[in-house]
Amino acid sequence: MADFFSLSELFSGFAAVADPMVILFIFIGVFVGIIFGSIPGLTATMAIVMFLPMTYVMSPIQGVSTLIALYIGGISGGLIAAILLNIPGTPSSIATCFDGCPMAKKGEAGKALGTGVVFSFFGTIIGIIVLALAAPLIAAVAIRFGPYEYSTLSLCALSLVISLTGKDLIKGLISGLLGIMFATVGLAPVDSAKRFTLGMSELTSGIALLTLLIGLFAVTEVIKAAEEVRNPLKAQVKYKNVSIRGFGFSLKEGLAQKWNLLRSSLIGIVIGILPGIGGAISGMLSYTAAKNQSKHPEKFGTGIMDGIVASESANNAGIGGAMIPMLTLGIPGDAATAMLLGGLMVHQIAPGPLIFEKNGVEVYGIYGAMFVAAIAMLFFELFGIKIFIRVLKLQKYWLMPIIMMLCIVGAIGNANRVFDVWNVLFFGIVGFAMIKSGLPHVPLILGFILGPIFELNFRQAVQHYLIDPMDVLSHPIAIGFFVFTIFVVFYSLKRQKKESMLISEE
Amino acid sequence: MKNRSDFITGIILAVFAIWYFVQAQSIRVFSGMGKSVINSQTMPKVWAVCLLLLACVLISRPFRNSFKDAVKKGEKQSFAELMKKNWEVTATFIALFVYALLLTPFGFIISTAVYIFVQTLILAPAEKRSYLGAAIIGVVAASATYYVFVFWLDVLLPVGKIFD
Amino acid sequence: MKNVIKQTLIASAAALALSVSGAANAADGSYPSKTITMICTHGAGGDTDYNARLISRLLEKELGVSVVVKNVTGANGSVALTQYKDEKPDGYTLIATNTIAMASNEASGLSDFGYTAFEPVAIYGKQCGENIIVKADTPYKTLDELIDATKANPEKIKLGIAFGGSSYIAASVIADEKKSQFALVDAGGNAPNRMTTLLGGNIDATIVPYTIAKEYAESGKVRFLATLMSERLPAAPDIPTVKECGVTNLTVDTLYGILAPKGTDAAIVKKINDAILKIVNENQEYKDEIRRYNYQDPYALNVQDTIARLKAQRELMMGFSKYLN
């Protein structure tokens, strides 16, 4: 098994990346990626989609490095909008909003951004290390995951809705269910029956996560701005910390996050590895885990570092995780790695079991490119913080319409169709109605992402079960997930009850 | 007030759940499914029933709690008052609706410029409103965005049917 | 009043005549005079997209104008086909798709129209084909051995397929003709999923494109039993076709095709077709690229043959539609 790690190939791989042209492409890629990531409506995936054809004509290492740079820059860039605007720049930075925005509102935008950037970097690096040291071993475990494992895992993740829901459990569950139900629009899993398309051919491809996010986050932010025109918030945002020094937080504060960083990165890597789950929920899961493990869970959501660290280290560590099945199995875990896979194949790098034998140098080149991209990301974002922060000084009436326009561009560009603008409007109305009726947004997103994964795998699992019922016993991981789910449900119900009692006493 | 809103939310959700269940019954069932007991109707029906149950809990809440906090009558507002108090919100939704409506016939540049102009005026407090500023920003932002995304990034932003 | 109507009629007839002659003008040699948009029905990074982008890059040189590929994706290509079938037929909007997706969408009722809703321009490529594979540590060396095993042990050997897709059709035809008794399970609509499910030991056999399984066959993890193509793949001549294995009715050829909206001038169609034939048959860069990327061999048809091929494929798939409802 040691043949996947060779020192001489490591050097030649890194040497290939040390070419000034490649480094230039990486820096450009990261820069563009950050722009795409930080603008709500434009995502890391979209950056890769739009630049993929340009890389067809580059040399293999240039092309692949550019794509990876776009990916890393894009995923990390999402934190900027999440913190400054309360709109996730990409789906993977949803959980960064939870504490990032409150912290910025407290006047500590610099600290929030610094935390996000630094822990994005550490998350990425941890992901790369795991990828480089253990990719084939991990892939061998990940490939054992079948319908039983996925259905129980998604059920487990869905049960975390309970801890993300706030004080009103019923409303949290309703929101999660609505998310699951919206996700059923389009073609059914397994047999592709049309469901809830209302006779509109545009709906057969379902509702894009992006339009849902734009509607729920961006439109509602515009609406909030509209509500505040004549009733400004009592607590005005303070800008005292616009000039930050260093990373915005002290070494002691940073060190206190080491376990959080490790746990969250691990969650991010695991979710990244499993094909089909997608990076969007890894931040939410690690946020929940951090909250459940914390000595002060009640402070989550008020603007503490822990929340930002959990979300940002997880989504960036997920990049390394997602690369594992893509490289060693030829199986992409999400849309972004599917593009990367196409990009690799165009350049005759054949991901799969033979990649270390056939393309060893290129693989190490990829590791090297990821490393350089992580550094480029840290460089651009740390120096950029002072510029990003000026966004807060802009008047909302100048900023919001422009953001909305970019979201519309993203909605159209996502699948190249104008119809999705109507989806955005629809979910804007849904999001507004939910705020007015006290339904939380986050469970809806979790349900929307996990519902289809659960249904698909559950239906497949039932097929397997009917063929051979005893076969279930040979899936200990699935049984483990199931038991864990029951535990989580009971534990969080108990905790939830305690918390809501506390709140009602106040 | 809060309980009343829960009641209305519950009713709306219950209606939605029933409608969803009825719709689910017309989903085509694939006959050649090999061995399977669940089809494409099954899970949606389960979700619908769950939602209906939760909605019922929401509806029943005000009655259970009615002795605790009786509905405060003084806070009731007429619909017209509510609209007047928050006309910016309604205007924003209308602006977005018109924007979506104009995109295909008039193309991205014109409809976006108009939208940004209108939305900026809606969001700006009366004393800070600048018609010229909003118009300039609208035209510049719309054209620049169109240029970047269409010519550099190959996005199919609508050109506008009227230019055909 | 009557006069007004009459005048309007004449005016509109004149306008119509003008616009028709306008279209004819486009074909008299001035076409193409501006950027051509090529709508690709499948996502960036896939084989349909790669073929579309390669051919348009080379078409630019042939036609002397830009040919820009844009992806409009969703529902196995039917979203793009629905959206662009009524586009202006001026030759400046073309659609690149794979024909099996179009034919099977019609057969399964996912969309209610087929190739006849378009002016077919060309078939310009042939995918390296779907293959029936098993894990290498199983005893089955040929398709017949696998089928016999299912008869000996009915409903126990799991064949992983995508319900309603071409792998499902293949399984149904094999069951019909060879009386195989596979336990059919869904293993995901995209081929990488079916590959992982097989490698993870959750199914015993599956059907995936050659490109995906090739690396695994080379490393001794899986074994090819048969290809669904009508002829053996030149890059892998050892794999028999299902027809040779005795399944007479089954061929699934994934062809890459270019369509134009209905009503596009025949001269324009011919001009693009000529350019494509020239590239595919003569351009060495093209030949090298498709072989390296996708193990394809040059394959292109003129307009008549394209229509005939699409018709044959549609009829074949419609014959399978009894399995799809």
- How would you name the oligomeric state of the polypeptide chains in this document? heterotrimer
**Total number of beta strands of chain B:** 0
The profile of the biggest β sheet of chain C is:
5 strands, mixed
Low-pLDDT ranges of chain B: 67-75
Provide the CATH top-level class of the largest domain in chain C: Alpha Beta
What's the order of the H and E elements of chain C?
Answer: HEHEHEHEEHEHEHEHEEHHH
* Number of helical stretches of at least 4 residues of chain B: 5
Distance between the termini of chain C: 56 Å
Order of helices and strands of chain B: HHHHH
Task: Give a short summary of the structure.
The complex is a heterotrimer of chains A (506), B (164) and C (325). With 506 residues, chain A is mainly α. Chain A has 20 helices and 2 strands.
Written overview of the protein:
The complex is a heterotrimer of chains A (506), B (164) and C (325). Chain A has 506 residues and is mainly α. Helix content of chain A is 72%, strand content 1%. Chain A has helices at 7-17, 20-38, 44-55, 60-85, 94-142, 147-159, 161-164, 169-183, 209-227, 251-255, 258-273, 282-293, 305-329, 335-346, 355-358, 360-388, 396-415, 419-436, 442-467, 476-505; strands at residues 186-187, 194-195. In chain A, helix 2 packs across helix 16 (360-388), helix 3 (44-55) packs antiparallel against helix 4 and helix 5 crosses helix 11. The longest helix of chain A has 49 residues, at 94-142. Chain A is globular, with a radius of gyration of 22 Å. The mean pLDDT of chain A is 86. Chain B folds into two domains: 2-69, no CATH class; 81-163, no CATH class. In chain B, helix 1 runs antiparallel to helix 2. Chain B is flat. By secondary structure, chain C is of the alpha/beta class. In chain C, 46% of the residues lie in helices and 18% in strands. The longest helix of chain C has 29 residues, at 2-30. Chains in contact: A-B, A-C, B-C. The interface between A and B is large, with 63 and 65 residues.
